[in-house]
Design brief:
eight-stranded mixed beta barrel, Rossmann fold, EAL_dom, transmembrane helix, cyclic-guanylate-specific phosphodiesterase activity, five-stranded parallel sheet, 30 helices, Rev_trsase/Diguanyl_cyclase, alpha/beta, transmembrane
Length: 859
């Protein structure tokens, strides 16, 4: 080697060292260095405030990865995250929940309103639903890590709530367990009766049909003392696959952490214990396919970001699939002699001694690869420069040196070719994965029918091609009542069987069936206008002819159907579907199992109702209601006895008969009920401050308000806050509150009685079974409807009224006669010994100020 060549080599060697030093600095900044306060693209935008309500305590095992995922999603977006802990695993009782409610309520009243709420795990979701109207009205809420899939999907029907479930990868875990334990014939789950445990139990038995050759059973720790639980574990035989899902309490009310439960279970069993959650793997449990809590938190945080950036909560579907990974304990695998070749290649193994390379594998591999590439580039550059300089200097190389360089280049080329082939295979994988994602995006997860988006695209293509078609919107009647009465598993089976029947009709290429959402289906019939007696429509009607069997009970379904035509009825996909929807809504008004064809008047009626609904929503936000009070008078003395509170709209000539019915179709009735209640209590405070003697006020309680589970607590808090006696409030109900809600209604009545509030049965005589209700509901008064007064409170017919008054008195009830407008009616009610009178004869509904001017007795 010449002198100049040696200098050149030294120069390149120094350059290589400097380059490697620079690479080390670069890698440090890329992999290790983090600014305490990274630059945010929203640094100068307004701060968004998000509250995270966790079901557990700060030390609970799953919480740190959840928070890490949320903070990763929020990074750089100028979001202030506050966290409140319910601690329901350690204190799973009503007292703890009430304390948390009081504490949170105080904080919410004294801090800036939150832009979004994150709900971690089942207890937080249930709490938020219970107190939504009171604490979180109008605030979007995103739940995650929910074990009860049915509860999560049902919660997602609320326009302010969405989120993701904590999918338990039980099928994958059991499939692998069967390979580990080929002699197994049983699959046993360990769970408890907490909210989490109830969700675990449902998920466990939901996969039973996927393993027909195995006997499924569960051990509920809440039903055993500690000793009894140990005995049950000891009875587990060697032919059992056992999965630990939850065990936070026992029969005696003792509470346990996950490490305590894991230690006890492992000590009392002689078979490997599987797990579909990270907590406990590495402490004696074998493991399984496990949900990623960090990715769950990241997903929930990402959904919140979408909402804060303008996405509508109602348009974001509940995510029912999560992120996962296999995770196993090396020591447990060895203890039970499990063949390591059966372990999935990408599984994480804990409790195994690692080499330095294995420990820092994730960091070293990219670093070494990067260094290798840089060194290859540097070597190629050196070789190329040396070659050119040697040519310039006319220095000859030996044949052996040239051959060695050539061989190196050949090897490099082969490596590049190999990398290309591997990349090509990866591309195929990506293409297959993309196809699957597209399929999921276009199909409904439950019924496997095309979803709304796919159906709308299909209809748009037909319209663009000017192909004639019939569009049908089909809704299952009373589906919500079926869900509430028989459970969501029954509801899901009805939806899936209905879908299967529609799929069988799709052998006729003219029919395209899809699921719009909830209990609604969209059908498209191509190339024809279907008349009422057409063969295909008759076949569609027949899908309800055969009952659907669930849990050995037959369910006869009825459907409401709206039909619209393209060309005659609409000019776009969205318009024709809207028209069919208008027709379906009209069919529901006619009863069940009705088929209605669209006409323009339906749209006008729907728009009118929508306009009123918008007015009501605005009124709820901006104090758009006021309350009038109609006096109730003692029939015998004419003395004022109390009032009925009646709601009115400010600035709109819309009668209560119109807007109450529309409010009852949505959650507006819940908000309105609380608004009226608060105004009544505040009016009573004003009367007291003005020196008036307080008398009972009757507040109407709509049958639809039964969905407001927190109303009684809300009323109780208002009474205590303003020091108003509970016996001054009378709640008026109607018999419609019992329709499909008997158990809920009786529980509601017990709650009212527990706080000292009286009940009255309104509109008595308008239903077919009011007398039957009087034998068991705890009302103190019945109100005779005005329609009966107009018909029967006349000479020769009033025996009917007299008999009702006698019936009420025999049952120990008072009776108020409504709608009394004439003196002879007043006199006759008094002669028949009715207790109270309400009507225009004494007074129309008046304002709170006018009430103060009333003289007693009222003439």
């Amino acid at each position: 080697m010449t002198k100049e060549e040696k200098k050149l080599v030294r120069r390149y060697a120094i350059g290589a060292v400097l380059l490697m030093a620079a690479l080390v600095v670069l890698i440090y900044y890329l992999f290790f260095y983090r600014e305490d306060t990274p630059f945010s693209v929203m640094e100068y935008s307004s701060v968004k405030h998000v509250l995270f309500i966790s079901s557990y305590s700060e030390s609970f095992e799953t919480l740190d990865p959840q928070k890490a995922g949320i903070r990763e999603a929020f990074a750089g977006n100028n979001i202030e995250l506050n966290i409140e802990y319910m601690d329901m695993k350690r204190f799973n009782n009503k007292e703890n929940e009430d304390l948390f409610y009081q504490n949170l309520k105080y904080k919410l009243q004294h801090c800036q309103k939150y832009d979004a709420i994150l709900l971690g795990d089942d207890a937080a979701l249930e709490f938020a639903q219970t107190y939504q109207q009171e604490l979180f009205a109008g605030i979007p809420m995103v739940f995650f890590c929910i074990n009860n899939v049915e509860h999560a999907v049902r919660a997602g029907e609320n326009p302010y709530i969405t989120g993701a479930v904590e999918e338990m990868y039980l099928k994958d875990t059991f499939n692998l367990a069967i390979k580990f334990q080929p002699e197994a014939t049983k699959i046993v789950a360990i769970y408890d009766s907490t909210l989490t445990g109830q969700g675990d139990e449902k998920q466990f038995y939901s996969v039973e049909d996927d393993f027909p050759g195995y006997e499924f059973s569960g051990i509920n720790s809440s039903e055993y003392t500690l000793e009894e639980f140990g005995e049950e574990l000891g009875r587990i035989t060697q032919d059992s696959i056992v999965i630990y899902m939850s065990r936070f309490e026992d029969k005696d009310g003792n509470l346990y952490t996950i490490p305590e439960s894991v230690q006890y279970i492992v000590e009392h069993t002689k078979v490997p214990i599987y797990r579909a959650s990270i907590a406990g793997v590495g402490e004696g449990l074998l493991g399984g396919k496990i949900v990623s809590y960090e990715k769950s938190g990241y997903l929930a945080g990402s959904i919140v970001l979408d909402i804060l950036n303008g996405a509508d909560v109602a348009d974001i579907p509940v995510v029912t699939r999560g992120e996962s990974q296999y995770r196993f304990d090396y020591q447990v695998l060895r203890k039970y002699n499990i063949d390591f070749s059966l372990i999935p290649k990408d599984a994480i193994i804990v409790n195994k001694s690692q080499t330095v390379f294995e420990k820092y594998r994730e960091i070293l591999l990219p670093v070494l690869l990067f260094l290798a590439v840089c060194l290859c580039i540097l070597l190629v550059s050196i070789v190329d420069n040396i070659k050119r300089r040697r040519l310039m200097w006319e220095v000859q190389k030996s044949h052996d040196e040239l051959k060695e360089t050539y061989n190196k280049l050949i090897i490099t080329e082969e490596k590049l070719k190999q990398q290309y082939e591997e990349n090509k295979n990866y591309t195929k994988y990506l293409e297959a994965k993309e196809e699957y994602i597209i399929y999921q995006a276009e199909h409904d997860y439950l019924t496997d029918l095309p979803n709304r988006r796919a159906a709308m695209e299909m209809l748009s293509r037909l319209i663009a091609a000017k192909e004639e078609c019939t569009v049908i919107v089909m809704d299952i009647d009373d589906f919500k009542e079926t869900n509430d009465t028989y459970g969501h598993a029954c509801g899901d089976e009805i939806l899936m069987e209905t879908a299967r029947r529609l799929i069988r009709l799709m052998d006729d290429n003219l029919l395209y069936a899809s699921r719009l959402g909830g209990d609604e289906f969209l059908l498209i019939i191509r190339g024809t206008r279907e008349e009422p007696d057409s063969k295909l429509l008759c076949r569609i009607k027949q899908i309800t002819a055969t009952p659907i069997t669930f849990d050995e009970k037959k369910h006869y379904i009825r459907i409401s159907v709206g039909i619209a035509y393209f060309k005659r009825d609409a000019a776009s996909a969205s318009e024709i579907v809207s028209n069919a929807d208008y027709a379906m809504y009209a069919s529901k008004k006619l009863g069940t199992n009705e088929w209605v064809y669209y006409d323009a008047s339906m749209k006008d009626e729907a728009l009118r109702r929508k306009g009123i609904k918008n007015i009501l929503s605005e009124a709820c936000r901006n104090d758009g209601f006021y309350v009038l009070y109609q006096p109730q008078v003692d029939a015998a003395t004419g003395m004022l006895d109390g009032y009925e509170a009646l709601t009115r709209l400010k600035g709109h000539a819309i009668s209560p008969a119109q807007f109450i019915a529309i409010a009852e179709e949505s959650e507006i009735i819940v908000t309105l009920g609380r608004i009226v209640t608060k105004k009544v209590i505040e009016q009573m405070v004003t009367w007291r401050e003005h020196g008036m003697e307080l008398r009972p006020v009757a507040i109407n309680f709509s049958s639809k308000q039964i969905q407001d589970g927190g109303y009684v607590s809300y009323l109780k808090d208002l009474l205590e806050e303003h020091d108003i006696s509970s016996d001054l409030i009378e709640i008026e109900i109607t018999e419609s509150i019992f329709l499909n809600n008997n158990e809920k209604a009786m529980k509601l009545f017990e709650d009212f009685s527990s706080i000292g509030v009286r009940l009255a049965l309104d509109d008595f005589g308008t239903g077919y079974s009011s007398i039957n209700y009087l034998t068991y509901i705890p009302v103190e008064k019945i109100k005779l409807d005005k329609s009966l007064v107009d018909i029967f409170l006349t000479e020769g017919k009033d025996a009917f009224i007299e008999n009702i008054i006698r019936l009420a008195h025999c049952l120990g009830l008072k009776i108020t006669v409504e709608g009394v407008e004439e003196k002879h009616q007043r006199d006759r009610v008094r002669d028949l010994e009715g207790d109270y009178i309400q009507g225009y004869y004494f007074s129309k509904p008046i304002s709170g100020e006018e009430v103060e001017l009333l003289k007693n007795p009222i003439k």
